[in-house]
Specification:
The chain is α+β, with helices and mostly antiparallel strands and about 210 residues long. It is about 35% helix and about 20% strand. The longest helix has 17 residues, at about 60-75.
Length: about 210
């Protein structure tokens, strides 16, 4: 295979590969076969993650295959692709902080919601369930904020009628974390962060 063709293959945007996943497992198997057959001249990489401290020879093809393989594995474990973003809908239940730690283990955060279209997608996906998202009012001042750093805007929020109501659960504490809730077809509800619910992680493709 020529170097130019190889670079074109390996440089294909990851989003294209992920869309192939949605089109069927047969196409995915074909992509895996192409990646396994890929080869390229060796590159010297003494400082990369594939080095054990000594000089290490690796290939660009192997690095790319490892990266793409990680995402393929993630998709097989419950990640879903939507408009340039990957979302993970958990089957387990955790408190809000433990759910955020679980997302960080995947190098992402609990999901922020930045548009009506994204809100509609998440509401459809969670169905009748209640899922933690990355909105919390814990911290100085008690203002609502997205844990991934996305600016929070009340005008661009999707609270259910009467929410947030900051209800006090006594020794359990107040309702300082947000969830997508069945009431109002997936609108938001504030709830006590210590209660266990499934959660949604979000990773924008191309983020570190």
């Amino acid at each position: 295979m020529g170097t130019g063709v190889l670079l074109l293959l390996l440089g294909t945007p990851l989003v294209t590969l992920l869309i192939l996943h949605l089109q069927g497992q047969a196409e995915l198997r074909a992509v895996r076969a192409q990646l396994e057959a890929a080869g390229t001249p060796l590159l010297l990489d003494p400082h990369g993650p594939w080095s054990s401290g000594d000089i290490c020879w690796v290939t660009a093809a192997q690095i790319r295959k490892d990266q793409l393989g990680g995402w393929l594995q993630g998709l097989g474990l419950g990640w879903r692709y939507h408009r340039g973003t990957l979302y993970f809908f958990s089957r387990d239940r955790k408190g809000w902080e433990d759910a955020e730690r679980a997302c960080r283990a995947w190098h992402c955060h609990l999901a922020s919601v930045t548009s009506p279209e994204e809100q509609d997608f998440l509401a459809r996906e969670v169905g009748p369930g209640s899922y933690w998202i990355g909105l919390t009012s814990q911290g100085p001042g008690g203002a609502w904020r997205w844990v991934d750093g996305t600016p929070y805007s009340l005008a661009q929020s999707f609270w259910a009628p009467g929410q947030p109501d900051s209800r006090d659960h006594g020794p359990w504490g107040q309702e300082l974390c947000a969830q997508i809730h069945p009431v109002g077809n997936g609108l938001w509800n504030d709830h006590n962060c210590n209660f266990s619910f499934p959660w949604v992680c979000k990773r924008v493709l191309g983020s570190p």
